[in-house]
Each structure stands twice: as C-alpha cells, then as structure tokens.
Design goal:
alpha+beta; 375 residues; 5-stranded antiparallel beta sheet; 7-stranded mixed beta sheet; Immunoglobulin-like
Length: 375
C-alpha cells in the first residue's frame, strides 16, 4: 500500500498505512503559517478491498466548521471527480472507500493544476480578443499572468476578475475558466455585447506558488494575500503589489474577487457596505447585480452569507473592500462552497468543477446587467 502526495498541489502526511482498515493521515500546514485544511494525495493499494482512511487532528484546522456535512472528492483518472462516503467525528475525518482500480486520488476539492493553468492561459491568448500580459513574478519565480480581453479604448469600462488568492480554493479558477471561455466565444451574444463597451482584466490565479505547494490559504512564505491589500510588499506579497500596480495603470470600474467557503453550502456574494465611501449609487449597483444573477441561475442565492459590516467598519486590507474604496467602484467577493449547494444538491458530485464553470458563464449575465451603469 502506497500513499503519496509528491505532485502538484499534493498535501498529506502518513502516520500509519499498514492495514487498509486503519490508515491514519494528517494534513501539513501551509509553509510559514498555521493554516491547514487542503489535502490531495494518491492511494495505490489492493482493488475491491474496503479502505478506511482517517485524517486526524482537525480541531486546529483553519475552519473546523467546514468538516461536518463535508464529502471528500476522489478520481481514478484525474478528470472525473466524484464524492465519496465521508464522516466527521471527534475531530477526525473518515473516508470509507472500496477502490475499483489500482490507484485513486483524493482531494478536498477538484484540483486545478499549474499545468492546466498554463494550458488555459496559453489557449486563451490565441483568441483574437485576448492578450496575455506578464505583470511580475511570485516569490517562487512563477509568472503573474493577466488576461486582457477586449479592445482597450477610451470610455470603455475596466472590469477586473481575480481568483485563488487562497490557493486551496481551486473552485475559483474553475469558475474563471468558464467565464473566460464564454467571453471568448465569438458566437455568444452576451459576450459580444459585453466586449463592445467593456474590457476585462482577468488574473486566473493570484497565488500560483501556494497552489503548487498544496497550501490552503497562503503564498510561498505563509502570507494570506487577502489581508495584504492595504500595504503589500515585494518580500511578503508581491502578487498583490503587482496586481494593484496594474489596476492603477489601467483603472478599475468593477471588481470581482472569486473565492470558496469551507463551511457554508451555498453560492453568495459579499459587498462593501462597510467602506467609508459606500453610498446609494454603489448599493443600487450591488442590488441590480444580485437581482440579475438570481434570475440568471438557481445556483445563486442571497439569503445565506456573511454578516454585513457596519458603516465605516470594513476591513480595507481585504481585496474587495480595498479595490472598492480605492476606485470608488462596484466590488464583490464571490463565494462558492467546498461542500454542495444545498439549494440544488447533487449526491454524486456535489458542488463540482463543471458547475463552477457554468456559474462563471452565468456571472457574465449579471455583469452585463450593471455594466452600462458602472459610471
């Protein structure tokens, strides 16, 4: 029996693996921090034998409330990822599984590999409407890649979309892939109308170092990028520094920062009502965006989400608040579940990569609903 995580985004520590019925594992913290929750590993063992894999010591994980009701994902071919029987008791997560093939992969959510990231941005640049720009290097010397979609011209809105500040939230890049795919579809009417009056600036992966290292929440040196937007630095958070420099250069009229939430089994958005400059215009834009998204897809809801900040109490070190305040623009954090969408449950796949991609496509409908009123 072999258990390994020595591959892109892999993360697991083997405590005991001699008996298929008594496998004990633990999750390694992000380098330089105490955050841990993301796991991704391969089991190679005897087919058609029941295996009990126990991931231990989760009381100090980043989000203990994320484990109850959670079902792990597994794949034989690393293409189709399905939910497997999972239970949580006494701070341990137990996966009960009978493999049908020699090896099987398990993960916290469907992984989005750095290789797929490279394929994605390379394919996108081949569209007539897309340009791939380099805005800087990460601490591990990976590219910070920006997709510019649409023809830049005076008077056009600049709409920014960023994803995966928290690298373990791989659903964010799956969403962006769907959004960009539709935006570059020359036969799609919504995309064509949007590109007449808007330019999209898309960073599919804000944290490629953490993604490759198998981190949940931080970059190569343990920095939570979504707390760095007030004072980013080259030594701790160059990813945010270079993004803000690009935003200052090109301008921002709307911003969506894409994330995943460990505990809440819903898709929702978090706005900037706590910002000092929040006003009736921004509130009306937020409302119009949400109303359009509710009509566009039943995957979205506006009942469950984060508590709203009191006026003037917003944390402007967080991306959506920082950008919304800096550029006086509509700015949202978009959250998706690690679990399933309880409003539309799917026992076999849960909230999945294909559903993320479709949600990304649907976001364009809501963006179009507000784009004419952004300024």
């Amino acid at each position: 029996m072999i258990i390994t995580s020595q591959f892109d985004s892999g993360n697991i520590r083997v405590i005991q693996a001699t008996d298929p019925q008594n496998i004990k594992l633990a999750i390694n913290p992000d380098n330089g921090s105490e955050f841990y929750q993301w796991f991704h590993f391969k089991l190679q063992s005897t087919k058609f034998v029941e295996h009990k894999l126990v991931i231990t010591d989760l009381e100090k994980s980043a989000y203990p409330d994320g484990w109850p009701g959670y079902q792990a994902v597994a794949s034989y071919d690393r293409e189709e990822w399905f939910r497997v029987e999972t239970s949580f008791h006494d701070n341990n997560l137990t996966i009960d599984f009978v493999p049908e093939y020699d090896s099987v992969y398990f993960a916290y959510f469907t992984p989005y590999s750095y290789e797929r990231h490279q394929d994605f941005i390379s394919a996108a640049q081949m569209s007539f409407d897309c340009e791939l720009r380099h805005i800087g290097f990460t601490l591990d010397k990976r590219d910070m890649s920006l997709l510019v979609i649409g023809e830049e011209a005076e008077g056009k809105n600049k709409i920014w979309v960023t994803a995966r500040q928290h690298p373990g939230e791989s659903m964010a890049e799956w969403l962006v892939e769907g959004l960009v795919r539709r935006l570059l579809d020359e036969d799609d009417g919504v995309a064509k109308k949007l590109l007449e009056d808007n330019v999209f600036y898309v960073i599919p992966n804000m944290n490629p170092d953490g993604s490759a290292r198998g981190h949940l929440r931080t970059n190569a040196v343990g920095t939570n990028l979504n707390r760095e937007w007030k004072n980013p630095s080259e030594d701790k958070s160059p990813e945010v520094l270079y993004t803000l420099q690009a935003m200052d250069k090109y301008g921002v009229d709307m911003f969506l920062d894409i994330h995943g939430d460990e505990a809440l089994p819903y898709n929702f958005v978090a706005g900037c009502e706590g910002n000092p400059n929040y006003n009736a215009r921004l509130e009306a834009l937020e409302t119009r965006f949400k109303e359009a998204l509710l009509l566009a897809t039943p995957e979205f809801q506006d009942v469950f989400g984060y508590a709203k900040d009191a006026p003037g109490t917003g944390n402007t070190a967080i991306a959506a608040n920082a950008v919304g305040h800096r550029f006086d623009c509509l700015s949202y954090t978009v959250e998706m579940p690690f679990k399933d969408n309880d409003n539309l449950p799917d026992p076999a796949y849960g909230w999945s990569a294909p559903r993320c991609q479709q949600f990304g496509e649907d976001l364009l409908i809501a963006i179009r609903a507000v784009s004419a009123s952004l300024r």
